[in-house]
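Let us work through a complete example step by step.
Step 1: write down the sequence.
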Amino acid sequence: MSDIYGQTIKLFGSHPEPVFESPEQQTGVWGREWGCDNDVGQLRVVLMHRPGDEMKIIDANKRIEEIGSYGDLDAGWYWQSDTIPPMEEFRAQHDGLVQALRDEGVEVVFLDSIEPDGIKSIYTRDSSFAVKGGAIVTRLARTIRRGEEAHVTKTLANLGMPILRTLNGNAMAEGGSFAWLNPETAVIGRSICVNEEGSRQIEEVLNAQGAELIRVDLAGYQIHIDGALTMIDVDVAIVDAAQLPYWFLEKLKELGIKTVEVTPQDSSWIINCLAVKPGRVIMPHGISNRTMDKLADLDIEVVQIPYDKVHHNGGGIHCSTCPLVRDPIN
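Step 2: predict the structure and record it as tokens.
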């Protein structure tokens, strides 16, 4: 019997090549080339969630003076600022982002389902992120967000996107703290939301694809690196230098990446932006003239939209978008 199997394999083939991530294997097996190996190539598909009935749990009577905001420990939700905007305005700004993306030719897909009280599910960046050939499903650090992983897994499966890794064990990581610097180099910000085991499991996937993962330890209670760095062109990043270690700023120079440093006059949220193609980026209002001049000098085109209402829940444009397919930049 073993000889029959052996002869069958010889006749019909058992081959590791071409690799899983190759265009031939992706299109032949999975229907299209999935994933991203950069953060600035033409954005083709993005995963989002339009805030819905889950937002009804927010109650302005549930004030917690200790955090200067609102929340309910028993119900398991918290708000991120001192202001709760009208939900119709909150949704309208999210709708505006969706329209801005569609105007750029991006296909917007939505989560199939969420937790009934998942008020943070709007921030789809965190529960998964794309690498070459597929997605990594993360394990969210904050227990009130646990469960989002199951919903994104079902959605990705229904889309037909390969899931290359689901973080397990005591690993913790969130997609807002992962960024591609170039197709061979990514960075992860270790923090209260990203531990070393999460970093290690992500690194295993990247190493198998020939990519390096740089670890940057974020300071204090910073949670994600996208509050300090976002790539906006093939060789340009917008950064808050005060939040990044000096050695990493030097590493960016070594990689040939120019930096646009924000000023005190800028909104802290402008770093939390999204490139839709090389040198074209969607940003929230709040860019100073000085920073706009720097961007113009580097031929960066900016599409500005209002997003301040969504910021009150603790996330921005970058947080609200999970790219699933981007064009290569090589």
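Step 3: interpret the result. DSSP finds eight helices and 18 strands in the chain.
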